[in-house]
Specification:
- The chain has three helices and five strands.
- Helices cover about 25% and strands about 30% of the residues.
Amino acid sequence: MSMPSEPPVWIDYDYAVVRVVPSVARGAFVNVGVVLHARRARFLEARLHPEVATLTDLAVLSGALLQGTLHAYETVCNGHGVIGCYPPSERFHWLTAPRSAALRTSPVHSGRTTDPAATLVSLYQTLVAR
């Protein structure tokens, strides 16, 4: 006689799409990553396009400047630097705060998952991967 399996543990999460805005005035953008925060799982991670500086549709921006900005974004997400000292939920809200800049995020969306890391990969594949 087999033991009944335990039901999955559902975890609420919030995510936003990371976008590069080559021309702030025009409002056009290119999705380059996803940041996902699951408070209960103590999960905050970003998945960014590895070759974003070489994308031809972003040629109006300096590749080095863009790489530096994305690196800073990852630094904050990973808990380093001045903003990295804050708890993950505050870092997530700082990363997703509206701003007029070349790097910004979509509105925050919510969901439920049993595996935040796998959900981040799935969202990245759906929303960013070329």
